[in-house]
Amino acid sequence: MDCTGNTMELRLYLKILLKRWWLIVPLTLISLTLAMFWSYSRPMVYQSTATYVTRLGEGLTNVGDTLYALDTFTGRQRLFVTYCEVMKSRSVVDRAMQIGNIDPAVIDWELYSVNCNVLPESNVIMVIVRGPNASLVGRLAEAIGVAGTARAGQLYSFVGLEELDPPEVQEAPGNRTQQGILGGMVGFVLGVGLAFMLEYLRSPVERLEMASIRHPKLGIYNERYFQQRMIEEINRARSRNRPLSLALMRLTPTEDFSLLPPEAEDMLLRAAALRLQDKIRAGDIIAYLGRYTFAILLPETPAHEAQRLIEWLHQDIRTHTFTVDAYIANFMVNSGIVESSGGSLDLQTMLTKANEALRMARQEGENSLHLIRTSAQPFALDAEIGVPEPLESNPNMPFTSSELDRLLEESASAAPAPRTVESHSEPPAERDGQ
């Protein structure tokens, strides 16, 4: 049931996105366009990457020099950080421009940069030079390598620094294409955020009603969600030619609930609702329709199995005493069941016939159950009836709350009549599409 609830929430979110597409798409396109315009208005950035490795020098002639070199090399993290600072220092860069015969006036240091990183778990450092001129970036990187290794050799004569991979010039990552994609993603996220904000600010009460799939007081599924699930199960029964049963169960308190506080009445009814939910099978669906009436949808269940299950629920509810705080209650039960083989009935017809069965059960007396079959042979459709078209999940359900209340009120006011245990009803030859 939790997975189904999550699916319903995802459908609700998707519905909001589709409803507000006119906001999401323009913002995405505008953000993408602005990002591309900004990217192309700036010069292309190139980078040159070169790697250097440290090693012990070859001029170690005595034990003291060797121990000193090993001690220095043991603290290699400090050594590598020092070498990185040397490679990107201002003195090394100035010396590199002299070596590369580069005029300092042509370099705008707001557009050029020199960075150095120590590669993890290695004796290798990486020097990265960035700038808008590919040729100048390459020359500067080569000159920095020459000047930097020379300066490092002066600092630590026993631990040298030599070139591992020569500088290689290429476009810097994060250029125009990546910036355009990033801009489009920012616009999409902004559009989605505004869509949800507008939807949530539109009407808090309406939003909560649409998002909720459970009755706020009883904790079981509400009428709107139940009708949506009924459409799904009817379509599944039609596609697989399987039975589907629906029961409407009316609980009648043996005590006068009008004498109880409203909170106590709600708590006692909630206790009964949760007990019914615990007793039904894992694949069955129960919801509250109002007026002490519960709807129980029984997929893959022919009439005789549905009748046995509802009779067992009758016995359990009738013999159980519900206690909440200082209040107790017992309930009498009446139920009406309609069985639809292969999804031969649509949602509206099933609810109407189930309500008719409930009305007849109430006419028969307390704790009665009435069953209406819609096919002479369970599991099979009448030969004259073709396979109906699948129902569409429509937010404007065939039955509104007021219409169900009217049907339930008619059932409650029905006059006594002779007892009828089971009746048979042929499905209509033609049905209006949902």
TrEMBL record:
The keyword Cell membrane applies. This is GGDEF domain-containing protein. GO terms for molecular function: protein tyrosine kinase activity. It is found in: Cell membrane. The lineage of its organism: Bacteria, Bacillati, Chloroflexota, Candidatus Thermofontia, Candidatus Thermofonsia Clade 1. Residues 242-374 form the GGDEF domain. The chain crosses the membrane at residues 21-40. Residues 421-434 have a biased composition (Basic and acidic residues). It is a multi-pass membrane protein. Pfam families: GGDEF, Wzz. Gene3D superfamilies: 3.30.70.270. Residues 393-402 have a biased composition (Polar residues). It comes from Candidatus Thermofonsia Clade 1 bacterium. Belongs to the CpsC/CapA family. Its main location: membrane. Keywords: Cell membrane, Membrane, Transmembrane, Transmembrane helix. One of its GO terms (cellular component) is plasma membrane.
